[in-house]
């Protein structure tokens, strides 16, 4: 398998268990600066477990996680967030009884900023997701699934991440909104230099990434540039 040179995020020999169930097996992978990396694989192979381990929600029994050359294996999720790791979990998890504006401002909790910086961040997310600007006083729980996904990504961006982790951002979302989210994520990488690691099943979105890793039975079994993603790999790891 091909290797990413000089990654900002490096996973080395990760082995993660739920109780005595061995979920992740000897995982080695990396994410380069300013690149989009997609993790593909069928349901139940360990993709979400891997993202939770990177975020610090799960601890590896063996192996380590490093970020910009610093070992972060023992750091808590909030410590990782302050270092610049942003996370949008599967299911979005917006605050349903808070307004869109309040949800966005929650993203500043890990990085208190000046009023000027706060306004710049808000302007950035309004440009990426214009629908949010017209819904600032609406409750998060009253948004559609696609709008909630846009809000969740925008909230993560408010924390000024250097790496943004997205777990199936297009799951259960109508096709028109999928394209909007796809375009926004591409623009984030191109305009800000933020690195993206995402789990995704939507083939068109997968092909927007620079690099892919394929998982099977808790391990990485294939990797490479998405420009070289073969139909054989697609059928094996993406086809339902």
Relevant terms:
single chain; 240 residues; alpha/beta; Rossmann fold; 25% strand; globular; ABC_transptr_urea_ATP-bd_UrtE; P-loop_NTPase; Urea ABC transporter ATP-binding subunit UrtE; BCAA_Transport_ATP-bd_LivF; ATP hydrolysis activity
Please give a structural write-up.
- The chain is α/β, with parallel strands linked by helices.
- It has a domain at 9-94 and 162-237: P-loop containing nucleotide triphosphate hydrolases (Rossmann fold, 3-Layer(aba) Sandwich).
- Helices cover 35% and strands 25% of the residues.
- The chain has 9 helices and 10 strands.
- The chain has helices spanning 47-55, 77-83, 100-106, 115-128, 130-133, 145-158, 175-192, 203-206, 231-237, and strands at residues 9-18, 21-31, 36-40, 62-67, 70-71, 85-88, 163-167, 195-199, 211-216, 219-225.
- The strands form 2 sheets. The chain has a 6-stranded mixed beta sheet, with helices on both faces.
- Helix 3 (100-106) packs parallel to helix 6 (145-158).
- The radius of gyration is 17 Å and the shape is globular.
- It starts with 8 loop residues before the first strand and ends with a helix.
- Residues 9-240 form the ABC transporter domain.
- Keywords: Amino-acid transport, ATP-binding, Nucleotide-binding, Transport.
